[in-house]
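Journal club prep — side note

Before the paper discussion, L.F. wants everyone to see what a predicted structure for a comparable chain looks like in token form. Sequence:
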Amino acid sequence: MSTVPLRTAMVPITRRMRAFFAPVERETETPTIFDPGQSGGFALDSPPAPWVDLGWIENFGRGYETATTAVRSGAKALPVAQFRGALEARVEFDFCEWGKLQMALAGGSEHMNVLAPANGGTSPAPSGGTPAPGVAVLPGSTASELVIGQGAVDSFAAGNLVAVDEDYRQQKGYVGWGIAAAYVRDPVLVRRDANYVRRVTFNVARVAQKTATSLLLAQPLLGGVPAQGASVQRVIGFVDREGGSFFQEWSALFVAEEESGGRACFYYPRLSASQAAGKGVREQLAAIAKPLATVSLRASFTALPYVDANDGQPVLCYRSYFPAASAATY
């Protein structure tokens, strides 16, 4: 009888893929780092900051389209060496859940918060008309608690969505506290609107409860502690648009959670929204039981390069594998 121990299969076994995204610092194109040595085994329900859990995804597919070309020599032009051509890779999948960040990533350009309208009517606009004035966020506020003072809290109720960011001050360039949400080339193009940054900001959260002077948020603001001079406005919903000149760019991590095998992770330091392959389907219906169906968001990205500090090599994606206990190494 053989004494060779049975070895655990080296096959990652999973039910679904899970997506996590984190901001890229757009001014310097610095991504959020995923270190497999420090964070490879993290609990999927508690990703390390600043990674944001965007839920399960379907129809995940990666494409690597970098050409490999041979250097040839001699009378018969025999291949003597190889080199890589232009780097190109893409990833596509369907978001199973809808939310602000999912819609922004699937839409690819500026994503708008529909701010609650002003009383007494407003000039209608597809991305939201004139909003009710913002309420100043006072010192002592945190990413989870907005201090706005007595009386001001009466303008909000538990369950409201709110956008928190500074007034637009006629600046050019990227706008959005903590996370770049849009790029302004000329203040005239955004009508010099003091509310413009809050129209596009990713600092959106739901009010869980109120105190006499504060709004307590159900989840921390993605951008962290509000900027000095920030204001808060109520949000009715979200809207994105086909077109626009701004490109979303985020770091992404896709994890195949292990069932009885190892864990596989696919880390893209920089993903930029792009047109989907084929006919570019944006939403798809998946039947549950007629006439009910779920609506999924199709997302497509081009991978942008990142220079690995360990050896100076340009990289598009890192694929990590964490073997199951007792699994063989080869």
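L.F.'s comment for the group: The mean pLDDT is 89. Keep this in mind when we get to the figures.
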